[in-house]
Specification:
205 residues, mainly alpha, globular
Length: 205
């Protein structure tokens, strides 16, 4: 592996997280009609958004490397076809969990927000998987959907407990941006001759 490329991934993911957080925060502020008390408060708000985006990016990268380790272990434990089936099952369960679990465990909760969240994650996963397959080959479809849905679902557990739609949007949008970027650039970071790398074969990433 080329460490310079991985450092590039780290810094660009930080930038994407920060930009995503800025765009999301400012859009929400405009839509809600919120105002700051002067330029100083506005600049402080931008700084908070920027810092939050960086933290979200770091959290996303932790999930990304956890996925790489899980992918490596899964390939060692299961046969190729078996690991794909396991990923598909976990992906479906994770999506259903996001969309319907809180409806059953909560009292008097409106299901529409969770369903919309699940559809947003699914849409982002499908778009990312489509681009990834175009960049590589069809074998990247299942791992990409698994990462974009199952891993993102795990990463959003904390904010889902807050039970705030605004907080969920603020976290999920930059998170999806970072996750999509990392998955799309993964095959460019791995040496094709290094089949024993933590990610496994490039065409499987």
């Amino acid at each position: 592996m080329n460490l310079r490329k991985w450092f590039f991934l780290f810094w660009t993911a930080l930038l994407i997280g920060a930009v995503g957080s800025l765009i999301t925060g400012l859009t929400m502020m405009l839509l809600n009609g919120e105002k700051t008390n002067g330029m100083a408060d506005f600049m402080l708000y931008l700084l908070i958004l920027f810092g939050s985006g960086i933290m979200i990016s770091v959290y996303s990268q932790m999930g990304f490397f956890a996925y790489l380790i899980l992918n490596y272990m899964g390939k060692g434990v299961f046969p190729k076809r078996g690991w794909q089936i396991v990923q598909i099952i976990l992906t479906v369960l994770a999506l259903l969990d996001v969309m319907f679990l809180r409806l059953f465990v909560g009292e008097g909760r409106e299901p529409i927000s969770d369903i919309v969240l699940g559809l947003i994650i699914l849409a982002a996963a499908i778009v990312t998987a489509y681009v990834k397959v175009k960049q590589t080959n069809i074998s990247a479809l299942v791992p990409t959907l698994f990462f974009m849905i199952a891993v993102t679902a795990v990463e959003t557990i904390g904010v889902l407990r807050i039970d705030s739609n605004a907080a969920t949007i603020f976290i999920v949008v930059p998170l999806l941006m970072c996750n999509a970027y990392q998955m799309l650039i993964l095959h460019k970071l791995v040496d094709p001759s290094d089949d024993q790398a933590v990610t496994g074969k490039v065409e499987q990433a």
